[in-house]
Amino acid sequence: MHSPNTPKPKGKRHTYEWYVVVICMLAYVFSFIDRQVLALMIEPIKRDLHLTDTQFSLLHGFAFSLFYAVMGMPIAYLADRFARPRIIAAGIALWSVATATCGLSQSFVHMFASRMSVGVGEAALSPGTYSMIADYFPKEKIGRAIGIYSLGSFIGGGIAFLVGGYVIALLKHASVFTLPLTGELRAWQLTFFIVGLPGLFVAFVFMLTVRDPARKGLAQDGAGNVKRVAMGDALRFIASHRKTFFCHYVGFSFYAMGLYCLMGWTPAFYMRRFGLTPVETGYMLGIVMLLANTTGVFCGGWLNDWLLRRGRSDAPMRAAWIGAACMLVPAIAFTQTTSLNASLAWLVAAMFFASFPLPTSAAAMQALAPNQMRAQISAMFLLVSNLIGLGLGTTLVALITDKVFGSPLAVGDSMAIINAVAIVLAVVLLYVGCRQYRASLDREAREVRVTIAEGQAPEKMPAGAATTA
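Now predict its structure.
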């Protein structure tokens, strides 16, 4: 086995590197189980904690996304300077414990605080993982590697629905359980312990087996020395490519808004519109996510790499707007049909195309940014994406349902409105972003050529610049 710090011969299979991708994906699985299981238990949590749809949306979206976003930048700054596996392992342990403490909640405030802690822990995972993948793999494999990692989100979401449905079915005849130290717990509270605590084992394995790869593509100062990059440098880099990052950050954020609306409110929609039980909904949506979303992530990563091989330097942005355009009609139609089977068919298509941006959004950032800024630039994107997509998107659905329609049964119409607006904006911004992204890569490539002409090592070259230089 080769050390991850030694150069790989051409054609090497990268066995250890793929192991790291898989263990990161496993962590991502647990992160989405912990954040998504809440959606299936909407009715008992609302009943026991006396919540409205709007309050529940704040727990599901805003409480998580606020601290996920706020803590993402400082944690990413540490990941750009120190050992990334240690930071990620600490984050896994934190969100696992925080998920378990959701099961101790007796009020909206208690649950809100626990969900914020889940967000803090999960903020450590993706920026550090994206940065490591860019150091482990050549550019033509980054899309697939990030795609496999991103599978964890929907495997986790699917398992959350399946496990949640199974636990609800298993515990449906017992309303209260008594455990040592915690006292009496309801079935939904016990579910948080069941899905949260196993993550501690993943954190332990991650700490023992994942090694930090050597950093590639390091930014240099004028003398050709590796540059010490501060958080302000990352912000200045974003500002120097402001049009590209605006189209990327905001375009992908509206794309994410459509995805999070589907993931957050589809369980309530099927239970309210078609009268399904939580158990039936959990099994049905778990299967949909495990099939449609995971296939969509893989195809999004494959399309990115296929376009790159054919000389499309804007491949990540191009693959994303294609996916967004194909998502528009299914994301609206599944809420408007009166047939359960037809609704599910439209939902499968919507979930498939909703998954395209996970590998492509990350691949675009890793290709453009210097190494010391990759985690921070990823964290800035996750800040914008989670505040707009998860925090704002899921809450707008609830507000329209509560304040405009005034009926919980109208949640499908609220989803259709938000999805229509969000996805159209995503298509437009990502389409425009293709040209801006190509211009940014060309600009970085020109700077590399100037550096070579001045006799310095061309280590700053972005991963995607080779197709434009």
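The chain has 17 helices and two strands.
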